[in-house]
Design a protein that fits this description.
443 residues; mainly alpha; Growth Hormone, Chain: A; 16 helices; globular
C-alpha cells in the first residue's frame, strides 16, 4: 500500500458527511422505542421492533459493498450509493414521526391491525436501511483512500464526527421542548418536539452528505491499483468472486474482530431498546407511557445519550495514543461494562452522567477500532464487499438480542433496568475475546 499522507483537512472532508448521517442514526436509536411505546407497543415486544432493521442491513450492506467495488463513474465509486441512501433517509425521516398523526385506520382496518404502528414499523425498516446505505460508503472510502499508517487517525476522526452528530440528534427533543414546542400529545400521537427533531435532522443530513460529495474526489481504477500496490484487473468478470468464496478467504482478523463485535452490538441493542423504560422506572418512578413523567424521561434519555456521545468524542481523541489497539479495545470494553452495570443501581438522573460517559468510552471504541483492524488486514481487493460482510457482525447480534430480549426481560423479572446488567456481562465477554485478535497486517 502507498504511504501517501493525507492532510487533516482531507481526512476531515472525507468523514464530515458522517456527522449528518449520525444525527439521523441518533434520532432513530434514542426515539424509536419511545415512538413505538407511544403508539401502543408492549414493553415485552419492544425488542421485536429492532429485528427487521439489522436483518435488512445484513442483506443490503454486502450488496452495496459488492456493487460499489465494481462502480467506477464520474460521481465516484462509493459516492453514488452515499447520495441515494441519504435521499431515501431524508424522505423517511419526514414521515416516520408522523405515524400516529396520519389517518391510516381505514387502510389496515380490514386486517385488524394497529395502522400507525405498522406504518411506523415499515418506516423504521426503510430508515435504518437507508441510513446504513449512506453510512457504509464512509467506512469504505477510508479503506480506499487512507494509508495503513493513518487508518487509526481516520477512523478516530470519523468516530469523533459521528458522535458530534449524535450529540445534536440526542439533544434536539429537549431543545425543542425548552423553546416551547409541545413534548406531549394525544394518545397514540408522537409529540411535536420529536417530530421537529426529525425534520431538522433530515435537513442537516443532506447538507453534510453534499459537503463530502463536493469536496472529496475518489480515485480512478489506475490510481487505486497504484495506491494499494495491486494489479488493475483488465477482466472484471474474472475478479468477481461470490460472498462465500470471499468469506472462506477472509483473514483470521476478520473473524476474531467479528466475535468481539457480536458481544458489543448485542449490548448496545439492549441500551437502545430499554433505556427509556429503565430510566422512567428508576428515576421517575413510572411505567405509564401516557404520563408527562414518561415523556420527560424520554427527553432525559436524549441528554444521557448526548453525554455518551461526549464520552465517545473524547475517547476517540485518546485511542490513537494507546501503544496498542488491543489495549485500547480491552480498556474501552471494561469501562463500558462498568457504565452499563452502574445504571441498574443508580436512581438519580444526574449521577447517570457518569454511567453514560463510561458507556460512551465503549461506543467510541466500537465505532473505530474494529474497522482499523479489519481494513489493515485486507489487501485493496474487495474492500467494499468485505466491509459489507463485516457489517453482518454488527447486524446479526442485534437480531439475536432483539429476538431474545423479551424472553431475557422475563427472566430478569420484567425490570428493564436489569437488562443493563445483561449488557455489562456481554461487554466483559467481548473484552476477553479481544485476546484472540492478531494485531498485524495480513495480505
Amino acid at each position: 500500500m502507498s504511504n501517501k499522507t493525507l492532510s487533516f483537512r482531507q481526512i476531515f472532508n472525507l468523514n464530515f458527511g458522517f456527522f449528518g448521517v449520525q444525527i439521523a442514526y441518533a434520532l432513530q436509536s434514542a426515539n424509536i422505542s419511545r415512538i413505538f411505546a407511544t403508539l401502543g407497543a408492549d414493553p415485552h415486544q419492544l425488542s421485536f421492533f429492532w429485528i427487521l432493521p439489522p436483518l435488512m442491513g445484513m442483506i443490503v450492506q454486502p450488496l452495496i459493498g459488492k456493487w460499489s467495488d465494481k462502480t467506477w463513474c464520474r460521481l465516484g465509486r462509493r459516492k453514488p450509493y452515499l447520495l441515494v441512501g441519504a435521499i431515501i433517509a431524508v424522505l423517511v425521516m419526514l414521515l416516520l414521526p408522523n405515524a400516529g398523526s396520519l389517518n391510516l385506520s381505514k387502510a389496515y382496518a380490514f386486517l385488524g391491525l394497529n395502522s400507525a404502528m405498522w406504518f411506523g414499523l415499515f418506516s423504521l425498516i426503510f430508515l435504518d436501511t437507508s441510513i446504513n446505505v449512506a453510512m457504509q460508503p464512509f467506512k469504505m472510502m477510508v479503506g480506499d483512500m487512507v494509508s495503513e499508517e493513518q487508518k487509526a487517525q481516520a477512523y478516530s476522526t470519523q468516530s469523533f464526527l459521528c458522535n458530534a452528530g449524535s450529540l445534536f440528534g440526542y439533544l434536539f427533543p429537549i431543545f425543542f421542548t425548552w423553546i416551547g414546542i409541545s413534548n406531549t400529545a394525544p394518545e397514540g400521537v408522537v409529540p411535536d418536539s420529536v417530530i421537529w427533531s426529525f425534520y431538522c435532522g433530515a435537513a442537516i443530513l443532506i447538507l453534510c452528505v453534499l459537503y463530502t460529495c463536493l469536496n472529496v474526489k475518489e480515485m480512478n481504477p489506475k490510481e487505486y491499483a497504484e495506491f494499494h500496490g495491486i494489479e488493475e484487473k483488465a477482466d472484471k468478470k474474472e475478479d468477481n468472486p461470490g460472498f462465500i468464496k470471499l468469506l472462506v478467504k477472509a483473514p483470521k482478523t476478520f473473524w476474531t474482530v467479528s466475535l468481539v463485535q457480536f458481544f458489543c452490538w448485542a449490548a448496545f441493542l439492549f441500551l437502545w431498546t430499554y433505556t427509556n423504560g429503565a430510566i422512567a422506572d428508576t428515576c421517575w418512578g413510572t411505567s405509564d407511557v401516557k404520563s408527562a413523567d414518561y415523556q420527560a424521561a424520554g427527553n432525559w434519555v436524549g441528554v444521557l445519550f448526548a453525554v455518551e456521545a461526549i464520552g465517545a468524542m473524547l475517547w476517540a481523541i485518546a485511542i490513537p495514543k494507546f501503544k496498542t489497539l488491543r489495549g485500547a479495545y480491552v480498556t474501552s470494553l471494561i469501562l463500558g461494562a462498568a457504565g452499563f452495570a452502574s445504571v441498574f443501581f443508580i436512581h438519580n438522573q444526574y449521577v447517570l452522567f457518569l454511567s453514560f460517559m463510561l458507556i460512551g468510552v465503549c461506543w467510541g471504541a466500537v465505532l473505530s477500532i474494529p474497522f482499523t483492524f479489519v481494513t489493515n488486514a485486507l489487501s485493496g481487493n474487495h474492500i467494499g464487499t468485505y466491509l459489507g460482510l463485516f457489517n453482518c457482525a454488527i447486524c446479526l447480534p442485534q437480531i439475536v438480542a432483539a429476538a431474545t430480549g423479551g424472553a431475557i426481560l422475563k427472566i430478569v423479572g420484567g425490570s428493564q433496568a436489569a437488562m443493563f446488567l445483561v449488557a455489562a456481562v456481554l461487554l466483559l465477554c467481548g473484552a476477553l475475546a479481544v485476546g484472540l485478535i492478531e494485531e498485524r497486517k495480513n495480505n
